[in-house]
């Protein structure tokens, strides 16, 4: 979606329709699982479907507010928004509420608030601001490490809260790096780590370790170079048996 200086909205209707379909499907499933033949009160906050409907209505209002704000605001205050999100994640270690084994929620009255969702938005803003800086060259190792650190800090804090699912979402940022021109090796490493993580959950740790050992053993040498600008380049990956 885009917003010009005259504040005339140009909606991406495909995205909007998909969004509405997804939240409607999710809410109907919650309603069907929660309702047991009683008279329904859709805005009843004591029921799961009532809470979810209020959240949906609040989200629609929030979307309108976000779109009504100039893009320059987000660019100017991206760092502050990011720091606030980090502070909210740190606060969970003191004031957090444990839900389903994850201490990643704030209990506010009858509501629960998960700051990791806002941290994703804040991290995306911070990464976008840093990458768009004229002094940033994403192909430079120093800038790659700084960008990775911006992503790593909230991801690590969320992982410490025993919320591995939300942590995995941060791996999606590396697809942005690849789009910006970083070596394909980074994308391969992230996909490998994700595959290992999911495999450990699905299969035994010993079996996964054996497979990894066999896979790593198939490589003989990896040739790379770092030029005077600090740009990292993969030159060749040679497997055993290939001279």
Report what the structure shows:
The structure is a single chain. The chain is an alpha+beta fold. The protein has 2 domains: 1-69, no CATH class; 70-239, no CATH class. It contains 9 helices and 7 strands. It has helices at 13-34, 48-68, 71-95, 115-132, 141-160, 164-169, 173-180, 184-202, 205-216, and strands at residues 2-3, 9-10, 97-99, 102-108, 111-113, 219-226, 232-239. The strands form 3 sheets. The chain has a 3-stranded antiparallel sheet, with helices on one face. A two-stranded antiparallel ribbon has the order 1-2. It has a two-stranded antiparallel sheet with strand order 6-7. Helix 3 crosses helix 4 (115-132), helix 4 (115-132) packs antiparallel against helix 5 (141-160) and helix 7 packs antiparallel against helix 8. The model is unreliable at 1-6 and 235-240 (pLDDT under 50).
Give the helix/strand layout:
Layout: E1 2-3, E2 9-10, H1 13-34, H2 48-68, H3 71-95, E3 97-99, E4 102-108, E5 111-113, H4 115-132, H5 141-160, H6 164-169, H7 173-180, H8 184-202, H9 205-216, E6 219-226, E7 232-239
Antiparallel strand pairs: 1-2, 3-4, 4-5, 6-7
Helix pairs in contact: 1-2, 3-4, 3-5, 4-5, 7-8
């Amino acid at each position: 979606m885009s917003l010009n200086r005259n504040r005339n909205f140009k909606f991406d209707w495909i995205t909007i329709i998909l969004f509405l379909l997804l939240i409607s499907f999710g809410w109907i499933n919650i309603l069907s699982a929660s309702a047991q033949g009683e008279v329904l009160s859709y805005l009843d906050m004591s029921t799961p479907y009532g809470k979810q409907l209020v959240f949906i209505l609040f989200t629609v209002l929030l979307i309108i507010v976000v779109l009504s704000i100039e893009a320059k605001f987000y660019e100017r205050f991206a760092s502050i928004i990011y720091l606030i999100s980090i502070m909210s994640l740190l606060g969970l270690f003191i004031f957090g509420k444990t839900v389903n084994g994850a201490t990643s929620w704030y209990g506010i009255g009858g509501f629960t608030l998960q700051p990791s969702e806002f941290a994703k938005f804040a991290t995306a803003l911070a990464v976008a601001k840093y990458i768009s800086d004229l002094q940033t060259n994403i192909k430079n190792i120093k800038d790659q490490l700084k960008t990775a650190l911006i992503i790593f800090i909230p991801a690590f804090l969320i992982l410490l809260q025993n919320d591995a699912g939300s942590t995995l979402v941060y791996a999606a940022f590396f697809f942005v790096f690849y789009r910006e021109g970083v070596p394909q090796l980074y994308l391969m490493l992230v996909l490998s780590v994700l595959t290992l993580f999911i495999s450990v959950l699905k299969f035994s740790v010993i079996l996964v370790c054996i497979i990894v050992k066999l896979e790593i053993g198939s490589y003989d040498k990896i040739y790379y170079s770092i030029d005077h600008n600090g740009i990292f380049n993969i030159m060749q990956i040679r497997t055993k048996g290939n001279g």
